[in-house]
């Protein structure tokens, strides 16, 4: 990998660290602290503070991911080949793409709805479930990325 490829990979990994690290911090630190001190309104405040950082990280990932693929020689001609998508690398890439689409869609929904729900009820439960699903899917995206990096 040349210097440009290394730079792309570094930026991609740093953005993934910001996204996944922010989610992990929120789950392991923010939520427990917010539950112990509900009067602080900590969870909504942390969510609002993380939103622009998280979206910036996602945008960087959406830019650097395809650039990394192109740098590896996986451009439009390769992506149009059916045989590519049947290969282990292609299937792993497809899984990662679908997970990314899922995370982006669910994050958009979560951001639009969170902060507008009562403390209890079906919508509250749905927002909590969506947050958990975003976290699990984000970790699976990292695993898929590691598999791609190893050539699987």
* Radius of gyration of CA atoms, rounded to a whole number: 18 Å
Assembly state:
single chain
Number of self-contained structural domains: 1
Count of alpha and pi helical runs: 6
Give unreliable regions as ranges.
none
Helicity level, as a percent range?
over 70%
Mean pLDDT: 92
Measured distance between first and last alpha carbons: 18 Å
Structural class: mainly alpha
Strand residues, percent? under 5%
- Main beta sheet strand tally, sense and closure: none
Rough shape? elongated
Number of strand segments: 0
Run of helices and strands: HHHHHH
Helix/strand layout:
Layout: H1 3-36, H2 42-71, H3 76-79, H4 82-86, H5 88-113, H6 122-149
Helix pairs in contact: 1-2, 1-6, 5-6
Give structural notes.
Helix content is 84%, strand content 0%. With 152 residues, it is mostly helical. The longest helix has 34 residues, at 3-36. The chain has one domain (3-149). Helix 1 (3-36) runs antiparallel to helix 2. It contains six helices and no strands. The mean pLDDT is 92.
Features:
mainly alpha, single chain, 152 residues, 0% strand
What's the quick description here?
By secondary structure, this protein is mainly alpha-helical.
């Amino acid at each position: 990998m040349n210097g440009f490829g290394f730079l792309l990979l570094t930026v991609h990994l740093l953005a993934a660290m910001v996204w996944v690290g922010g989610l992990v911090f929120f789950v392991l630190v923010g939520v427990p602290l917010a539950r112990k001190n509900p009067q602080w309104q900590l969870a909504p405040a942390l969510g609002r503070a993380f939103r622009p950082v998280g979206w910036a990280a996602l945008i960087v990932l959406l830019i650097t991911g395809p650039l990394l693929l192109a740098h590896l020689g996986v451009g439009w001609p390769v992506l149009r080949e059916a045989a590519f998508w049947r290969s282990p690398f292609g299937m792993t890439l497809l899984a990662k793409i679908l997970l990314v689409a899922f995370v982006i869609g669910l994050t958009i929904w979560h951001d639009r709805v969170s902060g507008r729900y009562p403390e209890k009820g079906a919508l509250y439960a749905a927002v909590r479930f969506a947050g958990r699903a975003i976290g699990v899917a984000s970790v699976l995206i990292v695993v898929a990325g590691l598999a791609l990096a190893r050539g699987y």
